[in-house]
Write a structure and sequence with these properties.
Elements: H1 2-28, E1 34-41, H2 46-65, E2 71-78, H3 83-97, E3 101-103, H4 108-121, E4 125-127, E5 141-146, H5 152-161, E6 168-172, H6 175-179, H7 181-190, E7 199-201, H8 207-218, E8 224-228, H9 231-243, E9 252-255, H10 257-260, H11 268-273, E10 278-282, H12 288-304, H13 316-335, E11 342-343, E12 361-362, H14 365-373, E13 377-379, E14 382-384, E15 386-387, E16 390-391, E17 396-402, E18 405-413, E19 417-419, E20 458-463, E21 472-475, E22 482-485, H15 487-497, E23 505-510, H16 523-531, E24 537-538, H17 546-549, E25 552-554, E26 563-571, H18 586-607, H19 618-634, H20 645-674, E27 678-680, H21 685-691, E28 695-698, H22 703-709, E29 717-720, H23 725-731, E30 740-744, H24 745-755, E31 759-766, E32 774-776, H25 781-793, H26 797-806, H27 827-856, E33 873-874, E34 881-888, E35 891-897, H28 908-915, H29 919-940, H30 943-950, E36 965-970, E37 976-982
Parallel strand pairs: 1-2, 1-3, 3-4, 4-5, 5-16, 6-7, 6-8, 8-9, 9-10, 20-23, 20-24, 28-29, 28-30, 33-35
Antiparallel strand pairs: 10-17, 11-12, 13-14, 15-16, 17-18, 18-19, 21-22, 25-32, 26-27, 26-30, 26-31, 34-35, 36-37
């Protein structure tokens, strides 16, 4: 029997040896169909036990839905919430278990060393809970959770939405706590807010340490806090803050997702102390997978932890743990079998089996990490996509702690910002903003800061300078203190009264210690003192300029802005030799002369052939034409020399134009000669620079830098105090004074209220920001003070303050003494009249041309009759008789006959011829003599015409015949071309 057994054992020994070898390989070498994955969890925490349940459930679900291929074997290592323990557990998983990937660690602090182990061994490290931005997702580290930086824009949007200007972050002293701060500062700057102070809590704090920090926060102005720390420390912080009265009216608290993600796991006492707190956390969209997950998760948790209390509702870390395990399983399926294993270093390189250099290097790690980074699927927490090795943010929920739980206040997305409801493509558009928020203490929205704090008063810096109406800090000789008064001081006092809360303050006159006269330092230097928090604000005639705004904040301006120049004025036209020419612009004088000449030319052209008045030599024609135009300019001639209607038409145009010009000229000249006329000595800055004149500015003012930027020579600038302006301008540029004084408009208004009679403000306005109050950068007072300034400047209070310091409206207006360009008659103001005149000329010219061409077409032998001028007297009966002889086609002659006159005696030559008996000869001689006598009387004797113009009786002189009739036909040159004789 024994022999049979021995023989059977010998026969089966090879088979048994094979079984032992295969079993050993199964235990130590990992079959190709199974991939070992490690997980670092704190098994003493219910939360991390819940994550174990999620990961195991995910692997089971994946294997069930993807049969065949490699399967994942999960190995759990307890890290006990300790960095050293976590590192030791990771080494165990890498060295002893030979895991191909590690899920974890839990915290950012633990992750630092473990990430280095993964990079050394080429083993992928996947963390669903290490969120610090200090952890770089590169090489073999993958962050399947959200980076803390992803929530910073949502927090900044909340700060901007509630118009808070100062925020104090409260964070723990660790890589996790500090990592978010630089990104938060940058985001707040983009929404015009800043961090005046960082409250740092130790990573392992005592209650005394937390209370000391809270007491420090209570003494500060800021009332908006952002809490970023582990849930355990945050719970203690809120409990102590509630007891200190910091969860009351006026306070605002915001918690990051470090607390928001685990809010449902907090105890009721902590939640009760957080009433009114706002929180930010990633939002998980509800889906069928998520609804089915909860029940299965609870079942798996009870199975893994028998006898333990039922877990709380799964939080986002459990969802991310599920998706992380699923991603590893999917990556392994995508990468295929991992057959290369680990490359173990030689024992010759180390004297200790625990040396880190003895860790193997995964030969499949590079292929596996690439597969993990490229994995994409729809998980229970949303779409799983890795960009640059980490999960990307999508939607954040804004929640508000109320009662024993919370309510959703809204959502934030990178694309749409804050919205009251989640944006769904098929639903109505989301409303901008947030739903109603319940604040600590049940009050309205906190303004973000409180004043006063601990009885402190604002120290208001006031410049000390020679007396002026804007700010005057004069030293009281009786008390030794400064009495602060002035326009700017009254404005600031009025603004403080309009503030919605009490702001106690004291004025602190500031002098320059380096100056013997106890005068103030430069305004820019005072602004720097405010920026250094030596003073809480600065009140005075401080101009808002860009250089100062770089290190201080200004309120809205409360005065008119800009810089101009004031110059003296000089007498203008009333004492000028050629003042009579000034009322009419030179261009208009030229136009009048042109009309004058053209009118004379038209009349001469039309009348020259038919009127002896416009005939004769060339010189005589020019003189007569000019004289006639001047005569028409003064008055219409009683004996018109023009006969043609075209010339009369031109003359009427000239008379109407001359009448209009005479009225305007008289009015303008009267104004110039009777009103005191002044004009600026300088027109603009360019003229000053061109002339090389000296320019003045107020001592200590930024106007000096402005002039330098405008290319003014520094040696041509002189500084004065406002009470020296008038004297400097009176001396002038070349007598120790200046030609112009540059200053801000409010100062110039004060100067002009006294010296406007002989000075004026000219030139362009160089824009500035006006006067404003100065506060340190980020001061929460700036917004409220600016609103109060608007109330003062838009109301009646500003009027009474201005009347107090500057009096009523300026009675003297120097601008009224300046002849404006509109006081001179210009071509442009009368061009319409000239256009009408030119149009009428054109019409008359066309008509004249038509008539001229028509007459040229008549019979060449037909000669027009000339106009004859003749005075005839004849005796014929007792009564008077009017006889009209028509002697021309376009003229007539009036002949007046008088009766009962003696006959006209014959000349001696005629009597002698009659005596000789020659009747025919007598008649010829008598006719010739009468003709000669009539010609002489007609052409040589003008006494009758002169007497007619004077209205004297038309009787011939004594000794001459009282009856003579001579009718002559003459041309335009007074040459006889025919005639009629009658006695």
């Amino acid at each position: 029997m024994r022999g049979v057994a021995s023989a059977l054992l010998v026969l089966l020994s090879p088979f048994l040896l094979l079984v032992l070898v295969v079993g050993r390989e199964h235990r130590l070498g990992q079959p190709p169909s199974v991939v070992r994955v490690g997980a670092l969890l704190d098994l003493g925490s219910p939360g991390w036990k819940a994550s174990w349940a999620s990961m195991s459930l995910a692997l089971d679900d994946f294997n069930a839905s993807h049969p065949g291929g490699s399967t994942v074997e999960l190995h759990i290592a307890d890290c006990k919430d300790d960095e050293i323990t976590a590192a030791s557990a990771a080494i165990h998983l890498l060295k002893d278990i030979k895991v191909q990937a590690i899920i974890g660690p839990e915290t950012s602090t633990q992750a630092r060393f473990i990430i280095d182990l993964g990079n050394r061994t080429n083993v992928p490290i996947l963390s669903y809970s290490a969120t610090s931005p200090y952890l770089s997702a590169k090489q073999y580290f993958v962050r399947t959770a959200l980076n803390d930086v992803s929530q910073v824009p949502a927090i900044a949007s909340l700060i901007q939405y509630f118009s808070w200007r100062q925020v104090v972050p409260i964070h723990e002293d660790s890589d996790f706590g500090r990592g978010i701060i630089p990104y938060l500062e940058d985001a707040l700057l983009n929404v015009e807010a800043h961090i005046p102070y960082q409250s740092i809590i130790p990573s392992v704090p005592t209650d005394d340490q937390i209370e000391a920090e809270l007491n420090k926060l209570m003494t500060m102005q800021t009332r908006v806090f952002v809490v970023h720390m582990s849930p355990k420390i945050a719970a203690r912080l809120f409990m102590l803050a509630h007891d200190a009265g910091m969860l009351a009216e006026g306070y605002a608290w915001i918690v990051t997702d470090s607390v928001g993600n685990v809010f449902s796991t907090l105890d009721q006492n902590t939640i009760s102390s957080m009433q009114g707190v706002l929180g930010v956390r990633p939002y998980v969209v509800q889906s069928d997978k998520l609804l089915n997950f909860d029940a299965r998760f609870h079942s798996r948790y009870r199975q893994q932890n028998p006898g333990a209390p039922d877990p709380a509702k799964p939080i986002i870390f459990q969802y991310w743990a599920y998706d992380t395990a699923w991603a590893i399983a999917m990556a392994l399926k995508k990468a295929g079998p991992l057959t290369l294993g680990f490359q173990i270093p030689s024992l010759k390189n180390s004297n200790s089996s625990n040396d880190l250099s003895m860790l193997g290097v995964s030969q499949d790690g590079a292929r596996l990490i690439d597969a993990i980074r490229g994995t994409r699927f729809q998980g229970i927490s949303g779409e799983f996509v890795l960009v640059d090795g980490q999960r990307q943010a999508s939607v954040f929920e804004i929640f508000n702690v109320i009662g024993n739980s919370y309510q959703s206040a809204g959502f934030w997305t990178p694309k749409f910002g804050l919205r009251k409801n989640l944006i769904i493509s098929s639903g109505p558009p989301a409303k901008v903003g947030l739903n109603t928020v319940i604040w600590p203490g049940g009050s309205g929205q906190p303004r973000g800061w409180e004043w006063p704090v601990a009885g402190k008063k604002l120290k208001i810096a006031v410049p000390v300078k020679p007396y002026n109406r804007f700010v005057n800090a004069g030293k009281n000789t009786a008390t030794g203190n400064y009495d602060v008064t002035g326009y700017c001081i009254d404005i600031f006092d009025a603004v403080m009264q309009e503030m919605p809360y009490a702001v106690p303050y004291d004025y602190v006159p500031v002098t320059d210690p380096n100056m013997v006269t106890s005068m103030t330092m430069s305004y820019s230097e005072m602004c720097r003192q405010v920026s250094l928090k030596k003073y809480d604000a600065m009140v005075g005639d401080t101009t808002i300029i860009i250089n100062r705004s770089l290190y201080v904040d200004f309120t809205l301006p409360y005065t008119e802005s800009g810089v101009q120049m004031v110059v003296p004025m000089k007498e203008n036209w009333s004492k000028n030799l050629w003042v009579f020419l000034k009322p009419i612009d030179p261009n208009l004088w030229a136009a009048i002369l042109a009309v004058f000449l053209f009118t004379g030319f038209v009349i001469w052209l039309v009348e020259r052939k038919d009127s002896r008045y416009f005939g004769g030599s060339t010189g005589k024609q020019l003189v007569n034409t000019a004289y006639f135009n001047f005569q028409a300019l003064i008055s219409v001639p009683k004996d018109p020399k023009v006969k043609k209607w075209l010339s009369k038409f031109a003359l009427i145009n000239w008379i109407l134009l001359a009448w209009l010009l005479e009225k305007l000229y008289s009015a303008s000249l009267t104004s110039m000669m009777t009103v005191r006329q002044l004009q600026p000595t300088v027109a603009d800055l360019n003229q000053l620079i061109k002339n090389g004149d000296y320019i003045g500015y107020q001592s200590g003012s930024f106007v000096r830098d402005l002039l330098k930027s405008l290319k003014v020579d520094e040696h041509k600038m002189r500084d004065y105090s406002p009470d020296q302006y008038a004297d400097a301008l009176k001396k002038g540029s070349w007598n120790g004074g200046v030609a112009a004084m540059f200053d801000e408009i409010p100062y110039l208004k004060v100067f002009m209220s006294t010296y406007c009679r002989n000075h004026t403000v000219v030139g362009r306005v160089y824009k500035t920001g006006g006067f404003g109050f100065v506060f340190p950068k980020g001061s929460p007072l700036v917004a409220d003070v600016s609103r109060a300034i608007l109330k003062v400047t838009e109301g009646d209070r500003i009027v009474s303050i201005e009347r107090k310091w500057f009096g009523d409206e300026v009675a003297c207006n120097s601008q009224a003494n300046i002849i404006e360009p509109g006081s001179v008659i210009t071509w442009s103001s009368l061009r319409g009249v000239f256009f009408i005149t030119i149009g009428l000329w054109i019409a008359a010219g066309l008509i004249y041309a038509t008539i001229w061409f028509f007459q040229r077409g008549q019979d060449g032998e037909q000669i027009q009759q000339a106009v004859a001028e003749l005075a005839i007297e004849r005796v014929h009966g007792d009564g008077d008789e009017n006889i009209i002889w028509r002697i021309g086609g376009d003229s007539h002659l009036l002949i007046r006959l008088h009766s009962h006159l003696p006959p006209l005696p014959l000349p001696p030559s005629a009597q002698e011829a009659r005596r000789s008996g020659s009747e025919a000869e007598s008649a010829r001689i008598s006719g010739d003599s009468a003709l000669e006598e009539g010609r002489a009387r007609t052409s040589g004797d003008s006494s009758l015409e002169e007497r007619r113009d004077r209205g004297e009786p038309m009787t011939p002189p004594a000794g001459e015949p009282n009856c003579a009739l001579s009718l002559l036909r003459v041309d335009s040159q007074n040459q006889e071309i025919g005639g009629l004789r009658e006695r």
